[in-house]
Amino acid sequence: MSNNILKLGIFGFGCVGQGLHNVLSQTKGINASIEKICIKHPDKERSLPASYFTTDPSDILDNADIDVVVELIDDAEAAYHIVKSALIKGKAVVSANKKLIAEHLEELLFLQSKYQTPLLYEGAVCGSIPIIRNLEEYYDNDLLNSVSGIFNGSTNYILSKMKNEGLDFEVALKEAQEKGFAESDPTLDVGGFDPKYKLCITLLHAFGLLVRPENILNIGIQNLNDQDVNYANQNKQKIKLIAHGQKQGQNISAFVLPTFINPDNPLINVHNEFNGILVESAFANQQFFGGKGAGSDPTGSAVLSDISALTYGYKYEYKKLHQTTVVTYSTQQLLEVYVRYNDKNAVQWTDFESINQSFESEDYNYVIGNIYLEQLLQEEWQLNDNISIVLKAIVEDSPNIVQEKTNNAVVETA
Amino acid sequence: MSNNILKLGIFGFGCVGQGLHNVLSQTKGINASIEKICIKHPDKERSLPASYFTTDPSDILDNADIDVVVELIDDAEAAYHIVKSALIKGKAVVSANKKLIAEHLEELLFLQSKYQTPLLYEGAVCGSIPIIRNLEEYYDNDLLNSVSGIFNGSTNYILSKMKNEGLDFEVALKEAQEKGFAESDPTLDVGGFDPKYKLCITLLHAFGLLVRPENILNIGIQNLNDQDVNYANQNKQKIKLIAHGQKQGQNISAFVLPTFINPDNPLINVHNEFNGILVESAFANQQFFGGKGAGSDPTGSAVLSDISALTYGYKYEYKKLHQTTVVTYSTQQLLEVYVRYNDKNAVQWTDFESINQSFESEDYNYVIGNIYLEQLLQEEWQLNDNISIVLKAIVEDSPNIVQEKTNNAVVETA
Ligand SMILES: NC(=O)c1ccc[n+]([C@@H]2O[C@H](COP(=O)([O-])OP(=O)(O)OC[C@H]3O[C@@H](n4cnc5c(N)ncnc54)[C@H](OP(=O)(O)O)[C@@H]3O)[C@@H](O)[C@H]2O)c1
Ligand SMILES: NC(=O)c1ccc[n+]([C@@H]2O[C@H](COP(=O)([O-])OP(=O)(O)OC[C@H]3O[C@@H](n4cnc5c(N)ncnc54)[C@H](OP(=O)(O)O)[C@@H]3O)[C@@H](O)[C@H]2O)c1
């Protein structure tokens, strides 16, 4: 794509679509103009002249004048068809739809390669924070150990309110919804699905790993209560919903879990709707990125940065996917978790490798125990409303991972 | 530069040079090999075979096999000649030398353009934090309002120790030197010169502004004492040495000043030798980058990332330098400062626009007053050992800047 004016066809004119329009119209020096906007409800009142709008996707997809399709709708299934057909028609695509991207990563890689047309999606992961671009470009030859962080603004807002104002989960959720942070179906946020989709995308750019969302554990924050918050307070910790991916040897483990965060961890200072990401590498040590994870203008501005990158011919190279050492996804990571429960029989105790502490009283019971990620991924008892799980620590030298490492080594030297 | 193996000629094998070697030798998949290392003292013991080393620059500069010159010496003047002649000979250059780069920015731009060869210097600004790359690539079309932060690890280490352990400045400095954070000539650090050089480079990539270091105010931390630290404590603030650049209309103001940092500012959590940068943009809101600002491996790893970028043909485009709206450097920014003094006559009170508060006692006197940046830049009274200056606030709507804006507007519409 040369340095000409890009002609944009936009799908969706909601929170992010309008943010993009706002940001674009106030930014000088970007060579892009909006040609058409495809929306769902033709009768909604709009802030732009009616001539911009259509409800017919082919007005964009079959318009030879349009170079770039910007997909900003809230329906992942419809978005999949739009993005796919745009790529097949050789149009560059920018999307902020983490669910669509995470669920179709392999096919989207294939389509980009087959039709030689780029797909950029910085806005899909942590809004305004340029994490994908940094993982792709800057950390390409560094030895990354882990990427973890607060990838979801709504849940962080809820947890901040529970901690700082003592609000109940339900009240805090309602507030987040009123402020427009939470999705209309809050399960995506509070159940940890949204950060999991983002983690999926991140794992590809950080480690060259392709893994399907359903193979990654996500435990949300919906079962947390003031007892859990108090327990954290006593240890000068905070509970945050953390998406975590880490590399040990060639093994990558990953999960989304409520986690006790220590006072010296920069993530403890990420408040309300902000996001934060910690990147640990062998040589650069720990690096921290923070910023607004969502919202109209911040996300619009990330989308605009992708559009701008297209004017310079930028595309993801997926360099780490092509590296010689192949990484494998592993759920053999041992975790130390805090489990609060009402009914002792509701927990499958045989799942645990060890119980390190236990506390019982009239109205508050918990244990601290070691359990394999694999076990948590297979079980369902932890979904019980009266059970909450919070990660205390990732057990170093997880026996099963060491096992795998040794096996690999044996195979390699054989 | 194609995807072949890059042949490196390195100048300097001290802290950063050895870090680079360490990082490079442990990183698979980077297509670069070290051909020759030019050092100063041939008799020093080295960790590599003698055949690597030379003291003759032409062994690198006139070696047609060498594609990339990596300049990592501690002598800015010698470095200038090395970098210049490498560029003239058409070799790509990577440097971590902020003094050299800041002092010769215009000429280095010209040489890169004339000889069509790239110069990269991510390691020169905030060590491992990829700020230049982000400003250059990611924030190119966003409306940046300001870039500010803790750009110097040694001074931040000293200030952290004064605050947390009540150490005196001299004791904390000695500790920083022992830990290897401080330069052998500590004036560069504690006088705020090092962060000023970094700020110079940052202003070019953030705003497209070229300004000479001597035109930027730098007040260091050498005069701060426990009274200043206590004053900050009382307000729940911390003193940090802040490099700051901001845009108002087409005017850019910039300075390096000890600054009271509020508890809600992410920079307050940047401890010891870490660096942190806040980027404020019109739409993406506030973004924060944190990480190790110095040290052997972290800086070596930033240098390696530049080398790796060369293998993909990366160069700085200096896009903002070519934007249509021209920015101007302005020192007409009004600042609210805290001034502690022993002798009332040592301060030039007529420099102030207003005195907002004053406190006198037997052994502690201070005023809070408004003063133009221009005034501080011209005067010398503030260098007096018994005077300390700490920024309280940047006065919004600085009258003289508004004046300039109006003038510009008149000229433009005339
Ligand atoms: N909101 C954020 O802060 C944020 C941050 C990062 C990423 N994202 C992602 O960005 C995307 C958009 O989010 P949003 O918050 O902007 O959603 P939204 O405010 O609910 O807006 C959705 C828009 O999509 C349109 N739409 C829905 N189905 C359509 C279809 N089949 N064809 C054409 N248009 C259709 C709607 O049309 P009508 O106007 O006619 O109803 C509406 O304009 C989602 O993937 C979301 O996950 C959002
Ligand atoms: N240290 C950090 O954390 C850090 C971080 C960011 C940027 N930087 C920058 O990186 C550069 C190097 O810093 P450093 O800490 O690595 O310095 P250093 O430890 O003092 O090492 C300096 C090296 O330069 C060599 N040298 C000096 N003059 C030379 C000349 N004329 N020709 C050839 N070699 C010469 C020295 O040779 P001998 O070994 O023979 O004495 C030594 O190997 C400086 O520009 C510094 O500002 C440093």
UniProtKB/TrEMBL annotation, chains A, B:
Q: Where is the Aspartate/homoserine dehydrogenase NAD-binding domain?
A: 12-121
InterPro entries reported for this sequence: Asp/hSer_DH_NAD-bd, HDH_cat, HDH_CS, NAD(P)-bd_dom_sf
Q: What is this protein called?
A: Homoserine dehydrogenase
Record's keyword terms, sorted: Amino-acid biosynthesis, Methionine biosynthesis, NADP, Oxidoreductase, Threonine biosynthesis
List residues of the Homoserine dehydrogenase catalytic domain: 130-307
Question: Known Pfam families for this protein?
Answer: Homoserine_dh, NAD_binding_3
- PROSITE patterns in alphabetical order: HOMOSER_DHGENASE (PS01042)
**Gene3D superfamilies, per this entry?**
Dihydrodipicolinate Reductase, domain 2, NAD(P)-binding Rossmann-like Domain
EC code: 1.1.1.3
Record keyword Cell wall biogenesis/degradation present: no
Q: Which SUPFAM superfamilies match?
A: Glyceraldehyde-3-phosphate dehydrogenase-like, C-terminal domain, NAD(P)-binding Rossmann-fold domains
Highest taxon, organism lineage: Bacteria
Q: In which pathway does it act?
A: Amino-acid biosynthesis; L-threonine biosynthesis; L-threonine from L-aspartate: step 3/5; Amino-acid biosynthesis; L-methionine biosynthesis via de novo pathway; L-homoserine from L-aspartate: step 3/3
- GO BP, one annotated term: threonine biosynthetic process
Q: Which family does it belong to?
A: Belongs to the homoserine dehydrogenase family.
| A single MF term (Gene Ontology) | homoserine dehydrogenase activity
What is catalyzed by this enzyme? L-homoserine + NADP(+) = L-aspartate 4-semialdehyde + NADPH + H(+)
Q: What general EC class does the enzyme of this chain belong to?
A: oxidoreductase
